[in-house]
Amino acid sequence: MTPPLRAIALIDDNDADNFFHGMLLERSGITGRVDVFESAERALAWFVASPDHDIDLILLDINMPRMDGFEFLDAFHLLPADSIRGTRIYMLSSSPMDADRNRAMAYARVDGFIVKPLDEAAIRALSMHIAVPDNGEAAER
User: Fold this and answer.
1) Going from the N-terminus, what domains does the chain have, and what CATH number goes with each?
2) Would you tell me how many other CB atoms lie within 10 Å of the CB of residue 140?
3) Cα–Cα distance for residue pair 129/18, rounded to 1 Å
4) For residues 20 and 82, what is the distance between their CA atoms, to the nearest angstrom?
5) Residue 138's pLDDT band (cuts 50, 70, 90)
6) pTM of the full structure
7) What is the mean pLDDT of residues 80-108?
8) How far apart are the first and last CA of the chain?
9) 3-class DSSP state for residue 13?
10) Would you state the pLDDT for residue 1?
């Protein structure tokens, strides 16, 4: 069975979270691949250099050094359309604050906000909400 998402980018500076979340995502069958970026700057540079990417979903932490999740969102939204493609974004943060949730949800490409840790229930909800149609663009089911 083909996974609903071709690839997920996990952008988080926490090694333990990346290991745990990456393992859960790989075991879930929701995606064929998980690409981990330990900094928002590296992830942004990768998207700029890889306009033909197959990332359908970004799971983005808010609190990171140098460039936080909101700064990443600001920069990501300025990329050319071919670098953004159909990529959707879910915030994956330890912050349960409504202010962070509301700020994140104000971005056009942010489709959801998950409070860490990622768990199987959240992954099931993601797989029900997002799929990739035949044209390769991420879309809701």
Assistant:
1) 7-132 (3.40.50.2300)
2) 10
3) 22
4) 31
5) very low
6) 0.89
7) 92
8) 17
9) coil
10) 66
